[in-house]
């Protein structure tokens, strides 16, 4: 959450002193490249939306001509960092009291825009129409509020499906948040920041001027000192009507009978309960009235649960306050058809869902909620669901929700903070010719550490907190400071080295009889997966022992029976007819892809199975990218006729996944990949690695056979699962209704 400088209010209810400091790099980011605006003005808060183009660095690889250079042992490919331009959506929330100064700031910093009209919605659009037109010189075009809300909600649900919805567990108010998957459309809605009676009652009863002040008071109050409960009337519960004794019978009821003064804190708590219960009969809740405030959400949850006898669930939307502005923006951008693209939240530029916790310092409380930001970047390729998901509506990528698992949350937050020094070191090393790299790396460190600290206090700040979201946030922060591929040099070195051993590895496998070879191939994939620079236990070994290689990794693997061991079922399946087509989501560069995956792929091709290799579209850790895989496969094909024939006959295809994460969300894959999977009648999906097969997709149910392979390279996780470092997960599953070789019952997760 961004903070502004010292604020001195004027007497006007919508202006403030011009001395306020609004740093454009923190709040109105990239304003000089803004193209289009929309605004949603509520009773107390304004939400601004604008579109900009952002210049950023990307890492590209280009193959060398090896006909002349191979003999001298030169590198396989070169790495180039290039500038690219992409589209970004910015959404900013601030109090109406700041609107005049913010409009002045926008006008002063706006450089190039062809925009002549600003779309506006919300109850305040009419009130501030003249001010907006005067300050920005744009014509205000008002849009229907409900239409904008629904349009905005559907857009965000489609593009941030797993991060948007959550419920509040009745077990606890502080940490019992459960996240939900997507909902196809919005059918019932309440804009809670439009509750005007609340503003008037707030001022009358508590003398507070800002909503945040009311929330802070309420966090210290006890509503039972003011409200009359059922037990105050009946001495206990009223069983005839099924009313418990702690149920509120009359809000502020005790104030009518007690001859005493009530504290502002108790009055504030009672007021929030009254408003929340009054509106607590809807389904979806939005607006900054809620804004991560557990008291309000808990009251609404209780009300919904009580009056529907548990049949209806209250769902809270993390980006609730922006939906009107998003909808208004989309109405104004229809000629550009933004829905033809996929968008992704940029965690580096989003402030997340904040709360006025009683643990915050007075200065933090005074400034909390002043400015909130949400940023979304346009993806270059359209993302769709994997056609092979058994039930797309119930698919949840992540295995563990850290908002619910406090022990796991504390460990992983510590783990990511502890790894920061290593990430900074590799980021700087990836750009040796750039003297300012050290300074940018330190800024990355500060930003990511701040994100981790925020998540310690507010685990639900970015929706569901998972290992995937922690990894993705780190990647976004690295890109923010122009480190598009910190592991590029490591990948290049390991790819060059592994290629030298490829022929020796496949010749050794070819000499084995069929039964022995099948196990050796699986063991090779697992050994290759050990080479993961994202795992500290492995990176420490690789840095301290440069001679650690493929054979050493094999010796590190646990002996059978493995932690999850479905190898016998897989082996029996191999005795049957070959699969039509296997989709293989690959993991790391170097030994993993070259000495582990490629021999396994070679065997599938030899059996008559077509293979689609899906790799990341953009860098993440030392994972192989599609660009790198194209070069590596061409080089391997020059040595191996099986791979060469597969490429020539298009029985081996290399397709980008659409992902730039060490994990995998099967509901957001490149549309081209989904088309290939469907056209090839894919009947086997192989997912490799901890990020893709353990942290995500461990419970993913597919409509075809699946194989999930990973080595546990984290001691804490291995211990929790009842294993040890380098324990093996080999999970083979067959959909219900087919000949079952499923051994998922042995799962420790």
Describe the protein's architecture and organization.
The chain is of the alpha/beta class. 38% of the residues lie in helices and 17% in strands. The protein is built from 27 helices and 22 strands. Strands 5-4-1-2-3-13-12 form a 7-stranded mixed sheet, sandwiched between helices. Helix 5 packs antiparallel against helix 8 (264-279) and helix 14 (437-457) packs antiparallel against helix 15. The radius of gyration is 28 Å and the shape is globular. Residues 1-20, 68-72, 170-196 and 355-369 have low confidence and may be disordered. It comes from Mugilogobius chulae. Keywords: ATP-binding, Coenzyme A biosynthesis, Hydrolase, Manganese, Metal-binding, Nickel, Nitration, Nucleotide-binding.
List keywords for this structure.
metal ion binding; seven-stranded mixed beta sheet; hydrolase; 4'-phosphopantetheine phosphatase; pantothenate kinase activity; 749 residues; nucleotide-binding
What's this, in brief?
The protein is an alpha/beta fold and 749 residues long. It has 27 helices and 22 strands.
